[in-house]
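COMPLEX REQUEST
Ligand: S-adenosylmethionine
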Amino acid sequence: MKFTVVTILPELVEPALTAGVVGRAREAGTIAVTTINPRDFTSDRHRTVDDTPYGGGPGMVMKPEPLLAAIAHASTAHRIYLSPAGKPLTQARIRELAQLPHLVLVCGRYEGVDERVIEEAIDEEISIGDYVLSGGELGALVIIDAVSRYVPGVLGESTSVDDESHSASLLEYPQYTRPLKLPSTRDGELVREVPAILTSGNHAAIAAWRREQAIARTAVRRPDLLARFTPTVADRKRMARPVDVGSRTHLALVHHPCVDRTGKVITTALTNFDVHDLARSSMAYGLAGYHVVTPVTSQRDKAAHIASLWMEDASGEHRAQALRLVRAADSVETVIANLTAEHGSAPVVVGTSARADAFSGAIRRTAPELVAEARENPAPLLILLGTGWGLAEHLIPSVTRVLAPIEGAAGWNHLSVRSAGAVILDRLFGRPT
Ligand SMILES: C[S@@+](CC[C@H](N)C(=O)[O-])C[C@H]1O[C@@H](n2cnc3c(N)ncnc32)[C@H](O)[C@@H]1O
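STATUS: Structure written out below.
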């Protein structure tokens, strides 16, 4: 594979190609990289390659003649102009470029190149990201590095490229090497261990774990990539398996701190329907607990009483099962303390709201992103449902995640807390239909 870099700064390109995978591939002759300098194609004493832009404006523009002559000298092979206005580079395009025998990589400088150079001599414009560099050389190096990995003989193991991030619209699974236990330098108590599955010797289980991790990571970090991913039948099962997260998820119906329509902090009153219906939804989606949060002792007693009525009803065992999930607490902080003691780690506290700008300090998650993230983190999840006009955000600093509001096509989304709770649970833990 041959690369020709057209650049007025060959000294920037050369040193980066002397070490590592690319350096070894050059030494072995598997790839060849040469540079051509447009200054060598100038005819004036100062070897001028730039001029002022027609129409005015800041900076200089690369003159067409030396650049066109340099490109023509390079070859008629596929010619790429590195440009922030080009098509964003992807692994799929890298794989295609690696099929070509020779790439000419044209590097701009200053404010860019005269547009007619692109019209005359460029086959493709590529951007290496949505930011502006001072020249195309780093972009050319990026292409040389990424393409070379696909050239036979450059990487030791021929399969390693296919496993990597982006090769199937998935990010790569986490990697570990020795030692097995690594004391944390951030948290004195903590020892970071390699996941046990990786030392189990069970290769099928390791492959399944890695695939699951790759999917979960991609869902959290790059939902845009996951949207392009085509899952296998086994992947579909993995992605539809919500039970492990549901069984460490708790729902809390918060009666305080909430706000009224003016924004004033209030305590709302308990309703029989809320206790009852959300307990049944929590049961249906496999939750670990449903907490009714109110500082009013008599209201907590009432919640317990409502639940116990059903539990004592001999003919209503299916409802009794659901109402056994009901627990009353005086505050969100008490629920967090209880869950921390029960699960051995503090819950990830998730706010909900009908408003898109709620809990602005928290990380916004869609339901699939939240589940995917929870699969990676063994902590319990605590989902807070507000009453009245919603949760009093400023009084619940423990919220670190916020779910996107439920919205239909109508542009009106004032659902009852029971309906919102059911929709949220279905989005998080419902089986796809
Ligand atoms: C300072 S930039 C010119 C930016 C240009 N004025 C614009 O706003 O689009 C100089 C050169 O750097 C290269 N370059 C800058 N950012 C790039 C990117 N994100 N991807 C590829 N090449 C880039 C191009 O070759 C460009 O001609």
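REMARKS: Residues 82-85, 107-109, 111-112, 127-129, 131-136, 139 surround S-adenosylmethionine (CB under 6 Å). The longest helix spans residues 203-221.
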